[in-house]
């Protein structure tokens, strides 16, 4: 069990990790590869104080080197879901389940636009994890929407459990699907419901009736990852100590809103880490 | 007239200056010498992301070099007072009066503990600037409290104007005082008042009757520099955009509260600068 699980791999995440290590907390960063950070593509960055005239890639490499030196652990993965367990959290990182006492969300700009009804029916037919929730749909009809080939694995697993699986790929090419999976083309438009539960997925004006919809996404909106997290539009709501509305959950960087700048992310990462460390120490004193 | 006047010379001030220059705003930093920053004395700093293992002095030198390269101007001075003039501010920097359209306060940890009654009677007999307010005390009795030798210049000026000047030095040695100045030893304890105005200064249990008290301080609390600035204890109150309660006035770094860390200061400096730039651009559109 880690003291602090950090979701994201950009400057906010790395700064939080470095400061948490200085407070002697065990830290694991759950992030994507280095080049998935928006910063990686920046040609020149000139307003991070003390390190002028570097490319985004050079800066990120210096940041990673600093974090590695401090003993930060890294798990390169996509986070599917986070489950609050009372005193700790279970992080589903590509179906590898890891525990952490506190969380720092540093997920970057929220690019994951959900479709209409998606957040509303989360946990009521909408899921981001077949491994977690698939058994709830035994003998039922489900649709899997795949933004990448991982959706195929989800669909293939569900094909053994469900009555009917429809697969809607949002990428090309589709690699391997079991024979009993129905392939569908088009873009999902809305999650439809009846009596408070999912009843169909609307695709190109057509409603595909189903009991459950599984989304395999490139990135998941933080409020979909962690149920009950307060957001304001795309931004996670935080106070000046970088606390979210959920106890033990902190946030830092672009996911808390503009300006989308390294210095802001690094500063907020530090504050989030010190707040998480104080929260842990407070708990230990009880 | 500068677009942005920045008060303070630490990481928050320098980061604000660098980001303001990137937005093509003219910037002047009013700060003390490099070695007056608390950071200067730090033996090793290891949690400013990307620049591990440096001394405070080395970091500050890199920070200054970055700011100088961006065309930031510096005025090494002690700020005595800031006067809001509606559309701009007049900054009294060692009696050199400079104008700026907006302000960023990055004054560091508020070490200037006022004595009892000092803030209460500000503008009602308490002043930090003899040049500004001396003439209001023509023919009256004043006390000058000097934390450094600049208090002597204040007292000598007032000696030509006031009926009686008492000088209370909080340092040694006293260099030169005009003959008609009364030297007093001891520590000031409280500003006493009658009918809403200063009536005396309490020193070692004795009340020295006077109409005005001038403090020549090493550092002045921000709320004493700028009338009406909202503080919470020692901290300047800011929102997430680093706005204070006064239009056109922003704050960043240690003066907004803990944690007292470089990354937090640098991040807040950037946010304050971008908020000030947006405020200026907003004004120009009108």
TrEMBL record, chains A, B:
Protein name, UniProt field: Thioredoxin reductase
One GO MF term attached to the UniProt entry: oxidoreductase activity
Keywords: Flavoprotein, Oxidoreductase
Entry-linked InterPro entries: FAD/NAD-bd_sf, FAD/NAD-binding_dom, Ferredoxin-NADP_redctase_2
Domain FAD/NAD(P)-binding: 2-269
